[in-house]
Design goal:
- The structure is a single chain.
- By secondary structure, this protein is mainly beta.
- It folds into three domains: about 120 residues, Thrombin, subunit H, CATH 2.40.10; about 110 residues; about 90 residues, Immunoglobulins (Immunoglobulin-like).
- The chain contains four helices and 25 strands.
- The strands form six sheets. Strands 1-2-3-6-5-4 form a six-stranded antiparallel β-barrel. Strands 7-10-13-16-15-14 form a six-stranded antiparallel sheet, with no helix packed on it.
């Protein structure tokens, strides 16, 4: 009888040493979570919940964003790409976007890294009624000027280069944002940018877009609402170009014949960058039989939401040579190396890893 009671008591604590230690750790987290000062009410993807918001070191991103850690129990539904609305009294209502999810070695809770939404973007999703995305509210985005971090140049001729402002934009990966196509135009501040590249694979849950600065066209762009191509699809203010197009149909046929054949190409190079090591990335043309030959590109772009984990040692239209910084703080970071050729952008996602 006594032995049976003892076994029941031990099973309540856990059948094995691991189970007992795990339950003890879970209780410690629950006690800490219930009493910590940085616990706050919030909305995660529209659902009310309670979470802990912790400050994040600014050393990795040169104080360009006020990142936070989001800590929640395991039963809270949250992941990369989730929107977090936090009503902090000292700042007022603010919206944040989840960027990374930490895989805990002791899974007593969830810990994620969030960045504050710094731009709300709007575009037309239905031209019949001029319906704006997300029921007119637009989508919160994290936008960063890539010219600060990357080469920020495009090649003109063999030796000269031109300044070429770029933005990197991160949005939640959902049905509406996935429909944004290459060439789509968006307002960022008072300027208009055109989407050159979209990637929803490197950081699952988010789509990151590379944008190139474009010219504001008041014939199509609604400056007051901040919506580019507002009249472009169904009701342009000017129809002069349409009549010219009809008159020049023969010229269009000639232009089609002059278009060059599309060339398949890619970037060759390592997808893992170890601390302190040097890597070279080269563009190659892919033949029909699968063989490759060297080619050239018009532009290189290195994209990262934090401080670049590499030094640029050499770059030209034929290659890009980088050296990974020997700093353990960059381990786990994701670097996106992109190249542009004839208006088409290709990329290689590089995961920063330890030396050995």
């Amino acid at each position: 009888m006594y032995a049976d009671d003892f076994r029941k008591k031990m099973k309540a604590l856990g059948n094995t040493t691991y189970d007992r230690n795990m339950k003890r750790k879970a209780r410690e987290f629950e006690l800490w979570f219930a009493n910590t000062l940085d616990r706050s009410q919030c909305l995660i993807d529209g659902k009310e919940t309670t979470a802990v918001f912790q400050d994040h070191s600014q050393s990795n991103n040169k104080d360009l964003s006020d990142d936070k850690y989001l800590i929640v129990p395991n039963d809270v539904e949250v992941g990369v790409g989730s929107y977090v609305s936090w009503d902090a009294s000292q700042w007022g209502h603010s919206e944040w976007l989840v960027f990374t999810e930490e895989h805990k070695t002791i899974p007593t809770h969830q810990q994620l890294k969030i960045k504050e939404v710094n731009k709300r973007l709007k575009w037309i999703v239905d031209y019949d009624g001029h319906k704006v995305c997300n029921n007119g509210e637009g989508w919160g985005a994290y936008v960063q000027n890539q010219t600060l971090y990357t080469l920020g140049v495009s090649f003109a001729g063999k030796y000269s280069s031109l300044i070429n402002a770029k933005m990197m934009l991160y949005l939640q990966d959902n049905e509406e944002t996935r429909k944004l196509k290459l060439g789509s135009r968006l307002f960022i501040g008072n300027n208009v940018y055109r989407i050159e590249f979209a990637d929803n694979i490197s950081r699952v849950g988010l789509i990151n877009f590379l944008l190139d600065e474009d010219t504001l066209n008041e014939e199509y762009d609604n400056v007051e609402l901040g919506i580019a191509n507002y009249w472009h699809q169904d009701n342009p203010k000017s129809t002069d170009t349409d009549s010219e197009t009809k008159d020049d149909s023969s010229n269009q046929d000639d232009t089609k014949q002059d278009k060059p054949t599309k060339v398949e190409w890619k970037i060759e190079g390592s997808t893992v960058g170890k601390l302190g090591r040097t890597y070279t990335y080269t563009p190659v043309e892919v033949k029909e039989d699968g063989t490759t030959v060297p080619t050239t590109v018009d532009e290189w772009v290195l994209a990262d939401i934090e401080d670049l984990p590499v030094y640029i040692q050499d770059r030209s239209s034929e290659l890009l040579n980088i050296k990974v910084k020997d700093d353990r703080r960059y381990v786990g970071q994701l670097l996106n190396i992109m190249a542009k050729k004839n208006g088409e952008v290709k990329n290689v996602a590089v995961h920063i890893a330890n030396k050995f």
